[in-house]
UniProtKB/TrEMBL annotation:
<keyword id="KW-1003">Cell membrane</keyword>
<feature type="domain" description="Major facilitator superfamily (MFS) profile">
    <location>
        <begin position="1"/>
        <end position="76"/>
    </location>
</feature>
<dbReference type="InterPro" id="IPR050189">
    <property type="entry name" value="MFS_Efflux_Transporters"/>
</dbReference>
<feature type="transmembrane region" description="Helical">
    <location>
        <begin position="60"/>
        <end position="75"/>
    </location>
</feature>
<keyword id="KW-0813">Transport</keyword>
<keyword id="KW-0812">Transmembrane</keyword>
<dbReference type="GO" id="GO:0005886">
    <property type="term" value="C:plasma membrane"/>
</dbReference>
<dbReference type="Pfam" id="PF07690">
    <property type="entry name" value="MFS_1"/>
</dbReference>
<protein>
    <submittedName>
        <fullName>MFS transporter</fullName>
    </submittedName>
</protein>
<dbReference type="InterPro" id="IPR011701">
    <property type="entry name" value="MFS"/>
</dbReference>
<dbReference type="InterPro" id="IPR020846">
    <property type="entry name" value="MFS_dom"/>
</dbReference>
<keyword id="KW-1133">Transmembrane helix</keyword>
<keyword id="KW-0472">Membrane</keyword>
<dbReference type="GO" id="GO:0022857">
    <property type="term" value="F:transmembrane transporter activity"/>
</dbReference>
<dbReference type="InterPro" id="IPR036259">
    <property type="entry name" value="MFS_trans_sf"/>
</dbReference>
<feature type="transmembrane region" description="Helical">
    <location>
        <begin position="23"/>
        <end position="48"/>
    </location>
</feature>
């Protein structure tokens, strides 16, 4: 799961010119999307860890990956 999350964050760096062109915004503003995603992961990880500490790791990983796949599918 760490690989999938890391790939999601870093793949958008190479696409910043296309994102900025599509949204008609400067590349620097489009770069904020990477920063916002990183902040979400930074602050969300400890909170979700606390909330899900009672769950089985295997079950949790399956649910997280299903949500991750669904989110990426909807965004595509």
């Amino acid at each position: 799961s760490a690989f999938a999350i890391g790939t999601t964050e870093f793949i958008s760096v190479g696409l910043l010119p296309l994102i900025s062109q599509d949204l008609h915004i400067p590349v620097t503003t489009a770069g904020l999307t990477v920063s916002m995603y990183a902040l979400g992961v930074t602050f969300g990880a400890p909170v979700l860890t606390s909330l899900t500490s009672g769950m089985s790791r295997k079950t949790l990983l399956l649910w997280v990956m299903l949500i991750f796949i669904a989110g990426n599918t909807l965004a595509a």
